[in-house]
Backbone:
């Protein structure tokens, strides 16, 4: 899960809500103290933090921690289920989901409902407006202020909520609303940039991967490379290694597209190096039995 400092939450929420330091601090603390809070020069007292957040229209307990966070889903289960989904092992995934439903039948949890319904949606539905409505409805069960790609970046989202936001962006792109998809990904990028730690969070990497895909397929090659490198930097910083091969392959593919446009051999050379590295990583981590042959075929066709 992402870990936030109160200083960043205060500053980002203040900017988002359009408060000046003078207006926000009035009646609570002096401007210098608020500035020190935001710059990590002083830790706000619980009372002052609560008063500042309430003045901006928020409830501190919701801003610090989202509803039902991590109540029933552990990190290992997320990785297991996401890998089954990515490798299209839908029958095995449905079997595990049924077992999970039985084990959790007496657990009342918004996240449980979102988690299970999200996976069912992805295994049974095509990318349509109907699917988008279902995904947005699921998200609004715990994020009621979500509307048309707008959501607060000053609260802490659990992995299920981040997965739903990621899914909503992808579905928008698939149904032709690429601008909306990019808008959501841009906000998620800002949100993730505020996190002190995303260690072992697979969804953070997925968001960068899918954001890069959306940009790349829209012809924004340089920006897509930049986002891929953000995802790789996140994986190098933390112990999460999922999709590393895919991010590296994307950069190779993007350089190959740039080479097709300008025929500068330095881009062809870079493309070959990245795709070759991607193939080596895919084989080493044995992460995707579906994608590894595809990468190998692409390398042979374009670079040998």
Residues:
């Amino acid at each position: 899960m992402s870990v936030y400092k109160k200083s960043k939450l205060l500053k980002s929420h203040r900017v988002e809500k359009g408060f000046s330091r003078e207006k926000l601090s009035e009646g609570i603390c002096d401007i210098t103290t608020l500035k020190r809070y935001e710059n990590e020069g002083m830790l706000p007292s619980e009372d002052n933090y609560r008063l500042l957040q309430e003045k901006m229209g928020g409830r501190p307990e919701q801003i610090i921690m989202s509803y039902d966070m991590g109540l029933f889903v552990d990190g290992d289960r997320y990785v297991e289920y996401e890998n089954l989904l990515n490798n299209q092992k839908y029958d095995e995934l449905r079997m595990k989901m049924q077992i999970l439903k039985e084990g959790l039948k007496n657990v009342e949890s918004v996240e449980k409902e979102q988690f299970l319904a999200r996976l069912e949606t992805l295994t049974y539905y095509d990318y349509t407006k109907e699917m988008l409505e279902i995904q947005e409805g699921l998200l609004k069960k715990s994020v009621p202020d979500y509307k048309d790609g707008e959501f607060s970046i000053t609260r802490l989202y659990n992995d299920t909520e981040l997965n739903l936001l990621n899914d909503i962006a992808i579905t928008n792109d698939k149904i032709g609303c690429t601008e909306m998809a990019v808008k959501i990904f841009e906000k998620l990028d800002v949100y993730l940039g505020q996190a002190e730690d995303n260690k072992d969070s697979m969804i953070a990497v997925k968001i960068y991967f899918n954001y890069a895909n959306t940009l790349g397929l829209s012809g924004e090659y340089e920006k897509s490379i930049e986002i891929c490198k953000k995802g790789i930097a996140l994986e190098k910083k933390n112990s999460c290694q999922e999709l590393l091969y895919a991010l590296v392959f994307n950069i190779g593919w993007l350089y190959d597209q740039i080479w097709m446009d300008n025929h500068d051999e330095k881009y062809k050379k870079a493309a070959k190096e990245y795709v070759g590295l991607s193939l080596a990583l895919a084989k080493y981590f044995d992460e995707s039995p579906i994608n590894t042959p595809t990468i190998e075929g692409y390398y042979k066709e374009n670079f040998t």
Q: What stands out?
A: Residues 211 and 229 are 12 Å apart (CA to CA). Residues 60-72 have pLDDT under 50 and may be disordered.
